[in-house]
What we know:
Chain A is built from 16 helices and 16 strands. By secondary structure, chain A is of the alpha+beta class.
Amino acid sequence: MKYQSFVGLEIHIQLISETKVFCSCPNNFGDEPNTNVCPVCMGYPGALPSLNEEAVFKALKVCKALNCHINEKAVFDRKNYFYPDMPKNYQITQFESPFGVDGYFNLELDDGSYKKIRIHDVHLEEDAGKMIHDGYQSRLDYNRAGTPLLEIVTEPDLVAGRDAELFVQQFRQMVRYLEVTDGNMEEGSLRCDANTSINLPGKGLGTKTEVKNLNSSRFVNKALTYEIKRHAKVIDKGGEIVQETRLWDEKTSTSKSMRTKEDSHDYRYFPEPDLPPYRVTAELMKEVLSSMLELPNDRKKRYLEDFKLSPEQAAFITGERKTADWFDSLLKLGADSNQAASWLSGDIQKVLNKEDVSLEESPFKVERIKELFDLINAKKISNNIGKNLLQAMFKEDKDPSVLVKEKGLEQVSDTGAVEKVVDEVLAAHSAVVDAVRAGEEKQVGFLMGQLMKATGGKVNPQMAREIILKKIKLDISGDSQSRDPKIVDKGSEK
Amino acid sequence: MKKYREYVEKWERKIGSFLQFDPEKTKGDSNPDGVLKGIPFGVKDNIALKGFDMTCGSKILENFNCPYTATAVEQLQKAGAVAVGKMNMDEFGMGSSTDNSALAETNNPWDTSRVAGGSSGGSAAAVAAGLVPFALGSDTGGSVRQPASFCGVYGLKPTYGTVSRYGLTAYASSLETIGICGESTAITRNVFNIMRGVDVMDNTTVDYKPSGKDDTQTIAVLKIGDGDLSEEVLNSYKVSIGRIKDLGYIVSEVELPTLKFVVPAYYVIATAEASANLARFNGIRYGLAEKSAETPSDLMQMSRNAGFGDEVKLRILLGTYVLRSGFQDQYYHRAQKIRTAILGDFNRIFEEADALMLPVFPTAAFHHGSSDLTQLQQKAADLYTCSANLAGLPALAVPSTIENGLPVGVQFTAPAFEEERLFRISEKLEEIFPAQKPEGFSKEWKA
């Protein structure tokens, strides 16, 4: 494309808190309509807001995670506009001096490189209620009115729809790590408005349009990709972009004009006189800092660099904080990082998916998995038995060592015992033995299978294979078809 | 009790200070053993009192039954005082006469053809007539002190942040406080000390310790220019200067250079805040709802159009105008600078003097209607009172003289949190000139 494109995001997250941001009503808006309300959040005459410290704390965590400068004196402002679901007909928000300004987020791009996305500001505000149009009636539920919202505004540093999609995904992951929101986009606990403009390279920002109603990161990408193309078409034809707010329609995959700049509100911001400027003290910041943790992108980087995990494994493990915490505590017990990563992203996840249980709720305690690894690594059980054991560990909620004993799964590595079983198998399948001798080496696999069947998989497979080959007295030295170099070596010793 | 009701009802036919009166209604909410045990008081109708309606003198809230009680009122109830009713006022506190009440007319107990002042006219009139020994008002730009002066009672506007505003219907949040109209210095002081204190429901309340330097030695007196005051008020003012000199205070004349800017600054800030504060009245959750509205936005527009009076609409429009983006530097921010400047003026004076004396209002109580003072002249006359609101300082109106049958008061102000200095000065003046009673006054409520 001959144009340069610019994308900025405004993301709202609903903060998890006991109470609403300016009163003591429960922050729980799924309840029976208009039950979690009081004179304050209903905007009764004479009621005043009083600031919820928990919401402030969480806001500061996000500011810190986004590397913002924290305004020591944070100010609340009134944003004035009339809307039936807004009890006071102004929203208490932050405009001139929000909690956080001038931050950045290191966005990981698809090729694994990073791009610094500047954060304009992070501000705390109150949510509105909900209006439901129902035939000839409009119904209002104020349970959500006054619940804490945190808005994060980026600079227009994102270039394309895909960047924005990645930003939303990685930002969402980060705020879930911080446990400040559940980040559910479909339910509206994370909402995103996107604005974009294009211009000829070197000409700076163009006239922007804003798209609302984007309730998944995929839609963010689609809508922005659509908008950028639409802008280009308009400009190509010699037209001009109208500064406006547009609505994304997922059904038609198009955006439609909602209101132009001329119809836009003059919000008449002014400082909220009912809330004195909030002083962010050094003590509070100390508490905020001590509550911080390694953020997902940093963690992923560490896994890639220190443990050489594959990007897929690293992405999977860092996807949820609890998974990554589980992984780290397994490593703390001394587990090998690659073994832990491949089991976690492979067989363990398979069982969890099948049983539809989360890792932290499952019987897969790190101590048990470490014990399982120890059994395998000491060759007390085979890798395959280990994998099967997972299912039993899940069902019976027992330690692997206990299960190995109970089920007699300990690997047989006693040569005499193995030879005895091999003799029995070879005797029962003499035709196959002949075929192997005649060069059908693949048939060894069949014999191994029979052997495993007869022993319940308990024999040390490497040893068993050697014994079978020895018994058949097959000389395969120089056979380039062999897939097992160890067998080649053994054979060549003969 | 029957006698009390009869007394109140007799007076009420003349002055109409109450919008609602029922001495039994909230009796059960008051502590039977507090220091103010059984003392009745009136509550301005923009202050929340559970059980009564809270109309704010407006049609838009005419039938609004208040579901909660203001913190300051609760404090008084805990101390044993009994709220007996709601006092008439200018609609949402916007006015200097109580004539802007959409619901009733209040007359001055000294001359029923004259106003009781405003906006807390009902509160001051009821105290002056002896219907209650004190009543709560609210003071945004002089709304307690001016009617107190017009009716010949004491009127306190406390330091901003000392008394919780939780439950006070907001007109101009950064300027106003709940105030007291009292029949004596003693009861005004008592009520103030009971009401004050930090309230978790009002984040603008502050914890503080007064300096303890209560004994005032020097009082600065505002220099009055020619024609600034009516003859009666000027005469009364001179009497007050003589009295404080006689009491042994060191008196010096001072000027407030910023004074000529305070009224425009006050109206910019007050109306800006009012435009947001009054946005909540939209007919949806409570209050007047126009039945014929077909959409939520119609409902809001029609209810506001029908519910608000002209003065309220004027101030909302003015406030909306001054807050427009691109015009804030010209109006709102400039007004805030004047606000800082007037505080600077006061601070300079308080470096030399312990308190400052100044007039309350340029005239005594005027006649109903705009014949004596137009609405604009009434606004311009707020200069002596609204400076204390802009600066957040405590100010007390004290009865001074009776001029041509009408009481005239004088005002004292002091540094923030120094209310006690004001009470001490007031007490000494009260010994010389106690609050006078209008004809027909009796202390029935004590019986």
